[in-house]
Known about the structure:
By secondary structure, the protein is an all-alpha fold. The chain has one domain (17-71). Helix content is 75%, strand content 0%. It is built from 4 helices and no strands. The chain has helices spanning 2-10, 18-40, 44-49, 56-71. The longest helix is centred in the middle third of the chain and has 23 residues, at 18-40. The radius of gyration is 25 Å and the shape is rod-shaped.
Amino acid sequence: MQEDTSRKVDEPPNFLNTDDVGSFLDLKAEFIKRRDAALIGKQASHIYSNSTLRNKKNILAITKEEKKAKQE
């Protein structure tokens, strides 16, 4: 039994295990989202939730356009 455990200890760890690759890709995707969000100054959830970015200025412009459309 000790020979089996010592052999396992001497073997280098397999960093490209199939279970680890999926979680690594998820982490990489999350990192890219957060990096892009930091560069733009927004939260990552808001960047990828809509096709258009909605910041305070855009939201105010949209509501003003909606009010004008309702008045006409």
